[in-house]
Design brief:
It comes from Agrocybe pediades. The protein has about 525 residues and is α/β, with parallel strands linked by helices. It has 3 domains: about 70 residues, no CATH class; about 260 residues, 3-Layer(aba) Sandwich (Rossmann fold), CATH 3.40.50; about 140 residues, no CATH class. About 35% of the residues lie in helices and about 10% in strands. It is built from 16 helices and 8 strands. It has an 8-stranded mixed beta sheet, sandwiched between helices. Helix 9 packs parallel to helix 12. The longest helix has 26 residues.
């Protein structure tokens, strides 16, 4: 008997088909058992931590609801990897019933124009129309747009103008929801939709396009970038066709933050469209390689095991990440060529911009392993014991090539995953950015690496560390998390966003905090036909 109200009612996806608990009736039985035993633990947790002095709690500031929320979520998440359970997903090819939408309106966005299909965005994956939910349901009075989309890439590029100095220019967000590329959706009922809802409710942004991109069960990478790029081109067209002014901010939480970084890199590398004005990264996932066993990153432990709901389960997560990157499950051992391609893609700047391999490639410090202790242990105790096939494809020295101004660039210049080598810095020319991260979450070290690398590369950066917060706290409501901490996050975001409206820098006059100029298309830019 299925339990559709608890998890998505769908048949086993191909990448889960070999898992015995992914099929009914075992799937429902396992989910019920896991849920029942977890619920039974709730009074145990409450009693235990109510008696225990606060200093012995996972974080002394946490109340009992926060402890129950993190422990409950961490234990329940295991059903995803054992039984292939997904939550809150939708079919991206089917439009919702407009009459059921209370806060948003739904629109189909045409596929990315052909002239923009270069770099990692190519014909390896079918281009499709993309659904998006637009907040608020009724357009803001300041927003006057032309509702005509054109497939003429040259026309789009030549008419766009996103720059303005007045405070009445609308701030438009493009939101990529989180969920590990296998959960959630852009629908207004999704848990992650609390983020665009608050951005509109608090009047931080005028309008938000929430992208219903294809999850890994529907299409592999780079489908997510293709779908996000299509919506970005659409928004630029809507505001640019008659020289309407706007500021565009890319927003992403968790895996959505990973997608934002990938889209921003593609926009920079290919140069078909102007760069966005800002990036809002909420607990961004920026090292996909950590989920693949026998990689250097997978042997660098993540902190905060007991203060976050994220878990490290290498084999099940590896299955999801291999599927996401387009490498199907097979009981047979992969070929050397397949493993080589997998390592090449997962250690690219587009997929794992803050993996140790990529950071070393570009000469950045590793906050995950500042003393090189874990890498030395990996090489000495793990790498040397790997089969020859894995040693060939996972050697850190072989992977850390094709950085800026290296002779290896000539060998990989046709490889779109290393095209960023045309730029002298890993995050060179990236737009103004704010990063929000809980200081109690498991991604804290790789997010520190991201912040350090961005700052080193000259990005106008602001970082807000949410006090004692777990992963992606803005996805939680105020019943389950500290309202004061959540409001502190929103205040930081609101203050950062005001910098796009003010004539003077939003913080101070120092170079590190000065307002960045709006990036323009290169004067000699020609759109590929």
């Amino acid at each position: 008997m299925a339990i559709p109200k608890i998890y998505d009612d769908n048949p086993p996806y191909p990448h889960y088909d070999h898992l015995p608990y992914a099929k009914e009736p075992w799937k429902s039985a396992y989910v019920f058992w896991r849920l029942f035993t977890t619920l039974a633990l709730v009074p145990v947790w409450v009693t235990y931590y109510a008696v225990l002095p606060r200093r012995y709690r996972p974080r002394a500031s946490w109340n009992l609801r926060q402890i129950v929320n993190v422990n409950f979520t961490r234990r329940i998440f295991k059903v995803t990897e054992v039984a292939g359970v997904t939550w809150g997903t939708r079919d991206p090819t089917v439009a919702p019933d407009q009459s059921t939408l209370k806060e948003t309106r739904f629109e189909w966005v045409p596929p990315l124009p052909e002239g923009f299909r270069t770099g990692i965005v190519n014909d390896s994956i079918p281009f499709t129309k993309v659904g998006c939910y637009i907040w608020p349901k009724k357009p803001h009075d300041d927003i006057q747009k032309v509702k005509t989309m054109t497939q003429d890439a040259q026309h789009l590029t030549s008419n766009v103008d996103l720059e303005s100095g007045t405070d009445k220019v609308p701030l438009v967000g493009i939101f990529m929801h989180g969920g590990g590329y296998c959960h959630m959706s852009a629908h207004e009922s999704s848990r992650t939709s609390r983020i665009p809802r608050q951005l509109i409710k608090r009047k931080i942004l005028h309008e938000v396009y929430s992208v219903e991109y294809r999850l890994l069960q529907h299409a592999p990478f780079p489908a997510v970038v293709m779908d996000a790029a299509a919506v970005y081109a659409y928004v630029v067209e809507q505001y640019g066709i008659e020289h309407k002014k706007c500021k565009v901010i890319l927003i992403g939480d968790s895996s959505g933050g990973n997608l934002v970084l990938s889209l921003a890199r593609w926009l920079r590398d290919e140069g078909h469209l102007p760069l966005p004005d800002g990036l809002l990264l909420l607990s961004p996932s920026c090292d996909t390689s950590h989920s693949l066993p026998e990689t250097l990153s997978s042997y660098i432990p993540r902190p905060n095991q007991f203060t976050d709901y994220l878990v490290d389960t290498p084999e099940p997560r590896a299955l999801l990440q291999r599927t996401f990157l387009g490498f199907k499950y097979s009981p047979e051992k992969p070929s050397v060529e397949e493993e080589r391609r997998l390592m090449e893609v997962v250690h690219s700047e587009y997929v794992s911009p803050c993996s140790p391999i990529v950071l070393k490639r570009w000469g950045h410090d590793l906050k995950q392993d500042p003393e090189g202790e874990h890498e030395a242990k990996f090489v000495r105790h793990i790498f040397q014991r790997l089969p020859t096939l894995l040693r060939t494809t996972r050697d850190p020295q072989n992977l850390a090539v094709a950085g800026p101004n290296t002779t290896e660039f000539a060998l990989v210049s046709d490889n779109p995953y290393h095209k960023s080598c045309r730029f002298p810095k890993l995050f060179g020319d990236f737009p103004r950015t704010i990063i929000v991260c809980g200081d109690a979450e498991r991604l804290v070290r790789e997010v520190r690496s991201l912040a350090t690398a961005m700052e080193t590369d000259g990005v106008d950066l602001q970082v807000h560390w949410a006090r004692d917060a777990c992963h992606d706290p803005l996805m939680l409501n105020e019943f389950w998390w500290d309202k004061t901490v959540l409001n502190e996050i929103w205040d930081a975001i609101s203050s950062w966003a005001k910098g796009f409206k003010d004539e003077v820098p939003y913080a101070d006059e120092s170079p590190a905090n000065s307002k960045s100029s709006v990036p323009q298309l290169p004067p000699t830019h020609q759109v590929m036909s």
